[in-house]
Specification:
Shape: globular
Radius of gyration: 19 Å
Largest sheet: none
Helix content: over 70%
Number of helices: 6
Structural class: mainly alpha
Order of helices and strands: HHHHHH
Strand content: under 5%
Distance between the termini: 69 Å
Length: about 180
């Protein structure tokens, strides 16, 4: 692609998708995220903004993998693993409440996102042992680490959402008590 060494276009796409993901994650939050912005997204956001961010990363790589499978017949497992991330993100986003920004009712959507992120990370680790150009191996190592971090970060978002629900519940209960007194 564009005469660049293998892996370099993917690194560029990862950087662009990350920037778009930050914007999508911030915009998908129902909280007053404007005050804290990126810090809130990466440190304190519940599952909904994290899933929106992750979806922005997975989608272009899934399309790229799908194109390789359809056009070249390449057996790219990214066509499956990224699709699982996209489905998991969609499930998290559809199950997120507006007030808390996290999944309601069960941990299933968050577990699906955790496992699909881990699968993508593993998918990048496997080819590191193959005889490939160094720049491609560097990309695979970066991507494996990136998706492993996303895996942990998305799982942590589940707890942030639960903590927020508990804080909101306590604040609501405290407010009712004050209005009675």
């Amino acid at each position: 692609l564009f005469g660049l060494p293998p892996g370099i276009p993917a690194i560029i796409l990862l950087l662009i998708a990350t920037a778009i993901g930050v914007i999508a994650g911030i915009k998908s939050s129902s909280n007053n995220i404007d005050k804290e912005g990126v810090n809130f997204l990466f440190m304190h956001s519940p599952t909904k903004p994290r899933a929106a961010f992750t979806l922005c990363i997975a989608l272009p790589f899934w399309l790229w993998a799908l194109e390789k499978v359809i056009m070249n017949g390449d057996p790219d497992l990214g066509a499956i693993s990224f699709l699982l991330v996209i489905v998991s993100c969609g499930f998290v986003l559809s199950r997120s409440t507006e007030s808390a920004g996290c999944c309601d009712c069960s941990n299933v959507p968050c577990i699906m996102l955790l496992l699909s992120n881990a699968l993508v990370s593993l998918n990048y680790i496997v080819p590191l042992s193959f005889d490939l150009p160094l720049t491609l191996k560097i990309y695979f190592a970066i991507a494996a680490l990136y998706w492993a971090i996303l895996c942990v970060w998305n799982w942590k978002g589940r707890k942030e959402g639960v903590d927020k629900k508990e804080r909101d519940s306590r604040d609501h209960d405290h407010g009712e008590y004050e209005s009675i007194v």
